[in-house]
Inverse folding.
């Protein structure tokens, strides 16, 4: 597991300022979908009973129907926990030095990348739609200099507050590093945190 | 005459069960490997184990009460048609 107070490649004075997951509504969607799927066999059974057919009474078709139902439940369960794991492993961490983006796509695809706060040029928050506005969640985009793609914090709670917090951290970081002659600018001299390739981060 | 045993339908079900168990352990592995250490994460793993255990107990309980050695003739399984009921 990953320790928040001991992140990989962390600097001595580095502390976590913001820790984000997707909004709880995403988790609710997963369970709602699973609940609807679980209602399908209940509905089929109820309709069959209403039509005077007892699906599980037959000595041959009864066990087959029960095993089909068991298989269906196993599939629904597997899909549900995979989605929950996907939700749980999508995290965004902002420290006083960098932004870490860790996203899980299914079971066999994981993307982890980071950017130093000094490299951030633009931060945008976006809330669109009725539910997003009502529950105050949305996306935050972090744009960096150069050709690197921008980070997207998907469906995070209070995106406006997150944007403001990151902006303040970026300003503080730039001021601190600007006045600190020991820090070497990214891309020059000794490697800094910003030069870690995403593939090298063991998150 | 050819008879069909119930035990054969347990084979495809066993494969589905095996896949579900693999998926379960892949999920637990990913949580253990990549999740942020917290009480919530530990609780989530416990919920995973309890819910999967409950599901397996439910399914196993049903499998144990059925006599899977029963054999059936195909004509017992299909709907029969009475020739005397045909139109004259």
């Amino acid at each position: 597991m990953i320790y928040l107070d001991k992140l990989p490649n962390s600097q001595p004075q580095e502390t976590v300022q913001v820790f984000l997951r997707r909004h709880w509504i995403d988790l609710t969607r997963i369970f709602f979908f699973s609940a609807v799927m679980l209602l399908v066999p209940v509905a089929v059974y109820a309709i069959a009973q209403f039509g005077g057919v007892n699906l599980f009474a037959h000595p041959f078709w009864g066990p087959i129907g029960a095993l089909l139902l068991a298989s269906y439940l196993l599939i629904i369960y597997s899909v549900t926990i995979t989605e929950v794991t996907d939700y749980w492993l999508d995290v965004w961490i902002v420290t006083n030095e960098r932004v870490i983006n860790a996203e899980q796509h299914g079971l066999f695809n994981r993307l982890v990348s980071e950017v130093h706060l000094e490299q951030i040029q633009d931060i945008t928050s976006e809330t669109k739609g009725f539910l997003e506005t009502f529950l105050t969640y949305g996306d935050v985009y972090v744009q960096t200099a150069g050709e690197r793609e921008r980070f997207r914090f998907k469906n995070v709670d209070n995106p406006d507050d997150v944007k403001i917090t990151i902006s303040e951290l970026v300003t503080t970081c730039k001021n601190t590093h600007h006045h600190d002659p020991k820090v070497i600018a990214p891309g020059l001299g000794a490697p800094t945190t910003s030069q870690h390739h995403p593939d090298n981060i063991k998150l | 005459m050819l008879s069909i045993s119930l035990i054969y339908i347990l084979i495809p079900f066993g494969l589905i069960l095996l896949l579900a168990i693999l998926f379960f352990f892949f999920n637990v592995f990913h949580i253990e490997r990549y999740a942020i250490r917290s009480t919530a994460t530990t609780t989530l793993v416990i919920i995973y184990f309890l819910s999967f255990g409950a599901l397996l107990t439910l399914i196993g309980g049903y499998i144990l009460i059925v006599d899977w050695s029963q054999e059936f003739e195909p004509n017992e399984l299909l709907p029969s048609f009475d020739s005397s009921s045909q139109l004259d």
Summary: Confidence is low (pLDDT under 50) at residues 182-202 of chain A. Chain A touches chain B through 31 residues (CB under 8 Å).
